[in-house]
């Protein structure tokens, strides 16, 4: 005879057994992921993801099987930690779902590849509302639809801190990957996608100021130019990356990997009118708005625009804007002295994100 387990016994085991003291909560357990349980949640979540041509076996077994039409698989992983990458007061669950996909598939695009599939590591406190998990999943599903990928698996665990660990896969479609190490003196540096908007949105949220919608939305749901990665590869890009930590800081990776210097032309950075408006409402001294907005474009992270170097004379579609040049390295330059990023030939503004700097 099947063993009967009362609802009360299940609920009290939930509270008694598995959660540290501080997680006891008055939220009715049936509305929390703890109340729903790991396996029901997995079933509900994984039902949301469509199968695509890249999926041979989706969620439900010990592992997924993903087609590799090119014979090579592009793989990357990035995490989002509550309090570090997002705050639930500032971003809805859907926003976080969109962002989780965007920041990972942007790395796939930055290799010159097409985003194909994702695996979602989901670590959350047991009193997280089921609605949050479902809305997050809807955001993932909708951003996947924009990028052209889908989810093939993941993991769900209990954790004091809400943390998403995402793995993204992509397909090169027979093209060479565009790495960080191919920039050559004389190449032009060009970007596609917004710069500075996410940082302005973050500043508005941090200061509790209601500012331009575009800055807030780009912070909550960045819009990487996914297809521009494959396009850049086709146009002969010599190096590429997405801007996660700030244009100057990220181009430093290209400069060092390629053993070149890069000079950026500040006047080529045209701040979006909504960025200028954000800078105004954030209290910038009148007359300095352009300068402060350009500094945000040079140092702000999390827009996930693409920055690439192209051989001189490359014909770039209009959505790519030239921002600088790869410098001729002087003959006297010693090994290890190249890899600088300058702005108008001088020191760049300070800024750019680096984990562990902030405690
Ligand atoms: N813990 C780790 N173990 C092995 N390799 C790592 C680890 N952390 C990062 N890397 C590798 O270091 C390289 C740079 O990582 P980084 O996270 O800075 O790049 P990114 O994902 O493009 O940037 P961001 O995380 O700011 O979006 C990547 O190739 C990444 O796989
Ligand atoms: C609550 C909150 N505080 C600060 C920030 C800013 N921030 C966090 S990580 C990062 C760089 C990219 O991260 P990674 O290298 O991990 O991809 C930036 C600019 C935020 N988004 N949310
Ligand atoms: Mg990373
Ligand atoms: Mg990157
Ligand atoms: Mg980073």
UniProtKB/TrEMBL annotation:
Protein species of origin: Nocardiopsis kunsanensis
Gene: thiL
Catalytic activity, reaction form: thiamine phosphate + ATP = thiamine diphosphate + ADP
Binding site for Mg(2+) 3: 62, 107, 242
Residues annotated to bind substrate: 85, 302, 353
Protein name: Thiamine-monophosphate kinase
Gene Ontology MF term list: ATP binding; magnesium ion binding; thiamine-phosphate kinase activity
Binding residue positions for Mg(2+) 4: 62, 76, 107
Binding of ATP, residues: 154-155, 180, 244
Pathway: Cofactor biosynthesis; thiamine diphosphate biosynthesis; thiamine diphosphate from thiamine phosphate: step 1/1
Entry binding sites for Mg(2+) 1: 77-78, 155
HAMAP family according to UniProt: TMP_kinase
Annotated PurM-like C-terminal domain residues: 184-327
Residue numbers spanned by region Disordered: 331-359
Sequence ranges of Low complexity compositional bias: 336-346
Pfam families assigned: AIRS, AIRS_C
Annotated family: Belongs to the thiamine-monophosphate kinase family.
Annotated EC: 2.7.4.16
Further remark: Reaction mechanism of ThiL seems to utilize a direct, inline transfer of the gamma-phosphate of ATP to TMP rather than a phosphorylated enzyme intermediate.
Residues at which Mg(2+) 2 binds: 78, 107
Keywords: ATP-binding, Kinase, Magnesium, Metal-binding, Nucleotide-binding, Thiamine biosynthesis, Transferase
UniProt xrefs under InterPro entries: PurM-like_C_dom, PurM-like_C_sf, PurM-like_N, PurM-like_N_sf, ThiL-like
GO BP, one annotated term: thiamine biosynthetic process
